[in-house]
């Protein structure tokens, strides 16, 4: 390492300009070459690099501006979507409430109509039972009357003679005459 630092410090190591040749000492020539290249690049590339950086800066700023505009549009669309969602949720709740109340109303109507139908059927059943009872009673009365009449006729025929028969007919005709006068 001492040789490297010595080569930079001591000027007698450097060859004179009168001769041209290749210096094969990499450690001595590399820093000089790098310094020259960097100096040329900085001097001539400063404008190009500045233009590249300015263009890059403008593209980044345009991209940021476009992103902000898109973000603003997205936020606006999001707010509209949220408003539509709230509106649809309110309508859904309204339909749900109306649907439930409609179902309850229909249920009550169905129950009421079923009760009315059951009452009508019960009334028809009771009327039918009363009619059948009345028919049975009338039939029994008819049979009892028939049997009583047959018994009375049998008793009358066996006990009645001509004279009693004529008196009974006269009494009945007198009763009918009295009834006719009352009616008129």
UniProtKB/TrEMBL annotation:
It is found in: Membrane; Plastid, Chloroplast thylakoid membrane. Residues 71-98 form a coiled coil. Keywords: ATP synthesis, CF(0), Chloroplast, Coiled coil, Hydrogen ion transport, Ion transport, Membrane, Plastid, Thylakoid, Transmembrane, Transmembrane helix, Transport. It comes from the Eukaryota. The keyword 4Fe-4S does not apply. It holds the Pfam family ATP-synt_B. GO terms for cellular component: chloroplast thylakoid membrane; proton-transporting ATP synthase complex. The keyword Thylakoid applies. GO terms for molecular function: proton-transporting ATP synthase activity, rotational mechanism. The chain crosses the membrane at residues 32-49. It is a single-pass membrane protein. In plastids the F-type ATPase is also known as CF(1)CF(0). Belongs to the ATPase B chain family. Component of the F(0) channel, it forms part of the peripheral stalk, linking F(1) to F(0). F-type ATPases have 2 components, F(1) - the catalytic core - and F(0) - the membrane proton channel. F(1) has five subunits: alpha(3), beta(3), gamma(1), delta(1), epsilon(1). F(0) has four main subunits: a(1), b(1), b'(1) and c(10-14). The alpha and beta chains form an alternating ring which encloses part of the gamma chain. F(1) is attached to F(0) by a central stalk formed by the gamma and epsilon chains, while a peripheral stalk is formed by the delta, b and b' chains. This is ATP synthase subunit b, chloroplastic.
